[in-house]
Please model this.
Amino acid sequence: MESDVGVSEGRGVSGSDPHVELTLDADAESVVLARQMVRGLVDFLGWDDASRNDVSIAVTEACTNAVLHAYPDGDGEYAVRAWVEAERLVVAVRDQGQGIMPRVEAPSTGLGLGLPLMLAIGDEVSFTSDAEGSTEVRMVFSPGARAR
Model:
């Protein structure tokens, strides 16, 4: 598995907030790397275990969607970017696959709970697709978001 990793300081609002980006092969093993990346940022922020678990679940679902649905005919890659803005964590998962398609029911595709989970966990969740086939899921989290 190949991946590109970039880490920089000073791109956040406060001038010292981290900005991390991974470009990953769209395979199952890559989801673990993306999850570990965001868990590290949540730990950096000092958020509690419940927040860390919630963010991990939402990011895992977004990455899994890119892996399973973006490239049905073969190989591809996706990017995961995460940064801190005003005490909130922003995570964007972007692929260059087929875009958001209507779900075709099939036993092998699972229960389809990923999108509802992301929407329940994130403070803000948006989905965008463009004419070139790029799809982005952007999620914004704050500590204890689901406790509210």
